[in-house]
Fold these 2 entries.
Entry 1:
Amino acid sequence: MSTLALRALSKRPATSLRPLQALISQRGVSGTRLNNKPSLSHQTDTSMSSVLPPPPPPPKMSFQDIFAASQGEHQGVWKNLWDKGTYHYWDRGQASPSLVDFLRDHPDLFQPSKTPLTALVPGCGRGHDVNLFADLGMQAYGLELASSATDIAREFSETIPPPPAPGSRSYITGDFFSNEWLNRLDTKQFDLVYDYTFMVALDPAKGLREQWAERVAGLIKPGGILICLEFPLYKAYDLPGPPWAIRSETYMGLLESVGFERVHHEKPRRYLPAGKDTDMISAWRRK
Ligand SMILES: C[S@@+](CC[C@H](N)C(=O)[O-])C[C@H]1O[C@@H](n2cnc3c(N)ncnc32)[C@H](O)[C@@H]1O
């Protein structure tokens, strides 16, 4: 990865957000016609509607309400959101400028290598960060739970220029905690793993943060790097997720215990709006 490549990349225009897909609520059809004549109930409905005001629209559920209503079936919720194309809740249409700056500022993070570096982005969404790593000449893999998500990421990648050689981008469907997707890849461990809004999207009450740390440690080569864009550091612990509140000390507690050493921890120079002035970015070397 050269400094020039990073500079050129930071000047690329940010890709714009696709128009949001409207949520269409499915309604049952009342007043079914028989022999093309309005039914009695239809006539009744019509006459009543001139007397009564229309019923209020159902209250809109917040993102967090949708997860709370699922009674812990979060993977099903993610899949459903992707199947409906409602990724606007989290998608920001571009790789994080904090990450772009961080990679440019720390070219020493990676040793020169004869083979392309491999990068993994778990819960990659539409793949903006995967595409960034590929543009830097890495073999970049994005992992997503639903095939509808990887289809959307692949489709999006076809709208942007291909990465320069030897960079490549692949979008894999699978559960981060399962080996099924890993068994399909030639690469079993990566030089780099990047986490942004993935670990904090896993329910901490189920012990998934500790499982995430163990899993990440297994997926990174000895000497390899984990980069975390730490978010949401501002959020109160009693507020519902995802994303669930976190602090820098939490990353430290989770990652030191599975063999990582923190080698950088800094305030980004540029932010995405969601974490403006509060995000931190950290890099961890696997011992
Ligand atoms: C908040 S979104 C963030 C997506 C992406 N990092 C971004 O910033 O646009 C979290 C993503 O993690 C994915 N996800 C959740 N649990 C997962 C799992 N066990 N394995 C793989 N992906 C998962 C969801 O489908 C969702 O797209």
Entry 2:
Amino acid sequence: MGRSCLHKCKPMRVMGWLQIILGGLVILVSLLSLTRFYYAGFFLQNDDICKYLYTINDIHEGGFDAKALSDRVGEVLDMLETLQGKLESKSQELEKNKGITLNNKFLEEEIVRPLHRANVALRQIRLPKIEGNNSIVKEDPLINFFVTEEIRKYITPKENRVGKINLYGSDKVYNTIGHSCVLHKKEVEKYMDYDIGSYCDDDWNLAQKLMLNGCDPLPRRRCLTRASKVYNKPYPINESLWRLPDERNVRWGNYQCRNFDCLSSKNPKRGYSKCTGCFEMEKEKVKWVSNSSLFAEFLIIDVLKIKPGEIRIGLDYGIGTGTFAARMRENNVTIVSTALNLGAPFNEMIALRGLIPLYVTLNQRLPFFDNIMDLIHTTGFMDGWIDLLLLDFILYDWDRILRPGGLLWIDKFFCNRKDLDDYMYMFLQLRYKKHKWVISQKSKDEVYLSALLEKPPRAI
Ligand SMILES: *[C@@H]1O[C@H](CO)[C@@H](O)[C@H](O)[C@H]1NC(C)=O
Ligand SMILES: *[C@@H]1O[C@H](CO)[C@@H](O)[C@H](O)[C@H]1NC(C)=O
Ligand SMILES: *[C@@H]1O[C@H](CO)[C@@H](O)[C@H](O)[C@H]1NC(C)=O
Ligand SMILES: *[C@@H]1O[C@H](CO)[C@@H](O)[C@H](O)[C@H]1NC(C)=O
């Protein structure tokens, strides 16, 4: 009986399914239409209606983008209506010719895929939540948050073509943007305001300000970055390491200085305050190679002697012009130097010396994999001002990228004497092996701490 029914029953069962799908679609379309009315303010009470109608235009300021939202809803409605039409005609066709069966291709191409697309489009809509009785409108940030079309284009996940899974195993690509960008909407919109394919404004300092304020990573842009008027070929590496670069290879527009000599520590109008003296090669040349008056300074050869031949790659986390990396290069060690352009062209300088500047802020997880670095050196960046919780997150991130047996070189960290115990606890909590540990006086109230620590094995 079961067997002989199969052929007759199948169309019936298919019809049943079609009816269920159709019913679902009808409900969906009705719901969506209702939300549309809702956004137009139909269900708001008395005063609310007035408030709503009057604010709908300037709601972009702090609220959500109602127009974009309603456009999205409209799109989905159209998709569902088309689908409904197709299903209805198919259903009539089936009723007329009982012999016809539904094939997989039809189901896949005409039903499953459009439904999937509608589903995805629906999910992209971030519905605002209504809070309290003065109908403060809140919504998930980002997709509907930004009004500028280029930001929205950037943020919207990009589905792979022809619905395929990409080499990363996902069906779409998400561009990233720091969540604090929400707090700096005006600046981000200014940053993203350009004609596609034309020249960007000379606004790297706006971009850096955003990054430092947590809008990090920033969106990518589709405009052309300006360069200096002439760009002469850089000096060969045997000369570039210890020579001030050609100043014509830097765009000086956003700095107070107009050439490298002006960046000298002797010039009170040099425009930057961190790492003064870093652009004077005579001063740089003695660092880490000759005994200084400072008790807390280790020499590179002494450090490398601890692990002969083992230290090959590393990270220099600080503010500088790449001198540490230059010296290490001479010892056949490749160092990546973090750099921010705080009032002076630190990135340009490091790169023109033939070294690698890594343009990152304190905000972000380091872009390196776990257990890979032989050495992390840090100096002049995070001193006594840093919040202990922030330092904790940073330390654990360093620990993550440092390999077992790798060295953490804390170079002249300074802080108030009364805070020293807190910081010492932070540095010692990871239970690294102590190779060197020196505390020395900086001034009446301040002390230097230098340490050379080794990450233990973690075969767990
Ligand atoms: C909500 O309404 C009640 C009564 O109208 C009022 O007492 C209360 O303060 C309102 N709450 C907010 C958050 O406005
Ligand atoms: C640097 O190397 C180039 C060839 O690679 C050589 O012609 C030049 O003289 C060298 N410069 C110095 C200062 O050694
Ligand atoms: C630094 O001083 C130590 C002893 O204080 C000495 O052994 C070493 O050779 C000196 N190094 C340099 C580069 O002058
Ligand atoms: C670096 O490598 C070069 C070439 O292998 C070698 O000649 C040189 O002695 C090395 N320098 C140091 C300091 O080990």
